[in-house]
């Protein structure tokens, strides 16, 4: 039970530590203010959405290094379509999500159908997505201005940077929660989820048992690409711009959230609940270190140690 819920225990431990070490102002702990707590969820929303898709890929024993670049491509696509091509909000969202889905499916086909290692395929995909983002944007960031005139995006798109429920809950956080809940239900109650775990546990046995391994792998990479594109749309809405450099290193943060969440890099074992807890754990850690003005280099060291400890716990976990 301890190993199964290591991410939840870790989140609780880090949360308690954050309370203990939180600076205060006027007698109030800064960490526990509602504004700060929702800022934590907002800060992890993009990485969290990507990490949910990454969980699917890692569960089948794969990896996707292209998700950060896909976020950048989606952010650029959103900005260009809205501002330079005068597309409406819904067509823009549909096109960008379709780009992410197709990109992921193509990577899945290359990996599953042609038996190329996912690491190599998605490393190439990272370069391709960055190149496409640079071509699409002309090699520079595209600012998003809002209004009804030409060259202006619909004001509705700016809501991605706003809060709801009396200005309390960030909209990106709500989207993250919805994505996580849907993924949890999907991985718990469908035949497809059983195929995912079977492939990660023993691909050869799964194939002999009649599991459509190739098809499942392709779909999983498609899901990961789709969610990375969704995170890119949110990113563009929050920052009011799309840049080909957006999402640099996000793939590593997403993998870290999945690993800290207890999902085995060997595949076949893990959950979206753990991934969400892992993303929040890293978000709380980042937040409390920033509140205490800890040097950014030291922050990197601490986060690295947390990831190593989480991976070490997986090695100790009984089979």
From TrEMBL:
<feature type="transmembrane region" description="Helical">
    <location>
        <begin position="113"/>
        <end position="133"/>
    </location>
</feature>
<feature type="transmembrane region" description="Helical">
    <location>
        <begin position="272"/>
        <end position="292"/>
    </location>
</feature>
<feature type="transmembrane region" description="Helical">
    <location>
        <begin position="89"/>
        <end position="106"/>
    </location>
</feature>
<feature type="transmembrane region" description="Helical">
    <location>
        <begin position="65"/>
        <end position="83"/>
    </location>
</feature>
<keyword id="KW-1003">Cell membrane</keyword>
<dbReference type="InterPro" id="IPR001851">
    <property type="entry name" value="ABC_transp_permease"/>
</dbReference>
<dbReference type="Pfam" id="PF02653">
    <property type="entry name" value="BPD_transp_2"/>
</dbReference>
<keyword id="KW-1133">Transmembrane helix</keyword>
<protein>
    <submittedName>
        <fullName>ABC transporter permease</fullName>
    </submittedName>
</protein>
<feature type="transmembrane region" description="Helical">
    <location>
        <begin position="216"/>
        <end position="236"/>
    </location>
</feature>
<keyword id="KW-0812">Transmembrane</keyword>
<feature type="transmembrane region" description="Helical">
    <location>
        <begin position="37"/>
        <end position="58"/>
    </location>
</feature>
<feature type="transmembrane region" description="Helical">
    <location>
        <begin position="167"/>
        <end position="187"/>
    </location>
</feature>
<keyword id="KW-0472">Membrane</keyword>
């Amino acid at each position: 039970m301890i190993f199964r819920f290591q991410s939840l225990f870790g989140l609780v431990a880090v949360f308690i530590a954050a309370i203990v070490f939180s600076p205060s102002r006027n007698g109030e702990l800064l960490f526990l203010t509602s504004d700060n707590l929702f800022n934590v969820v907002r800060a992890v929303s993009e990485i969290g959405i990507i990490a949910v898709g990454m969980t699917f890929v890692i569960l089948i024993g794969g990896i996707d290094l292209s998700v950060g670049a896909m976020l950048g491509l989606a952010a650029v696509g959103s900005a260009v379509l809205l501002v330079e091509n005068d597309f409406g909000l819904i067509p823009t969202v549909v096109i960008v999500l379709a780009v992410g889905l197709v990109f992921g499916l193509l990577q899945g086909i290359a990996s599953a159908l042609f038996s190329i290692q996912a690491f190599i395929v998605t490393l190439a995909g990272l370069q391709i997505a960055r190149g496409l983002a640079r071509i699409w944007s002309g090699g520079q960031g595209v600012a998003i201005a809002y209004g009804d005139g030409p060259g202006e995006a619909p004001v509705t798109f700016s809501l991605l940077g706003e809060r709801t429920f009396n200005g309390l809950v960030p909209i990106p956080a709500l989207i993250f929660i919805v994505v996580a809940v849907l993924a949890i239900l999907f991985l718990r109650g469908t035949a497809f989820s059983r195929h995912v775990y079977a492939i990660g546990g023993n691909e050869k046995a799964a194939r002999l048992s009649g599991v459509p391994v190739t098809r499942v792998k392709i779909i999983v990479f498609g899901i990961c690409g789709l969610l990375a594109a969704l995170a890119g749309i949110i990113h563009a809405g929050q920052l009011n711009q799309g840049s080909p450099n957006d999402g640099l290193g996000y793939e590593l943060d997403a993998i870290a959230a999945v690993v800290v969440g207890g999902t085995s890099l060997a595949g076949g074992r893990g959950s979206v609940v753990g991934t969400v807890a892992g993303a929040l754990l890293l978000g709380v850690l980042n937040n409390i270190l920033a509140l205490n003005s800890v040097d950014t280099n030291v922050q990197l060291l601490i986060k690295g140690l947390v990831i190593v400890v989480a991976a070490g716990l997986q090695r100790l976990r009984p089979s």
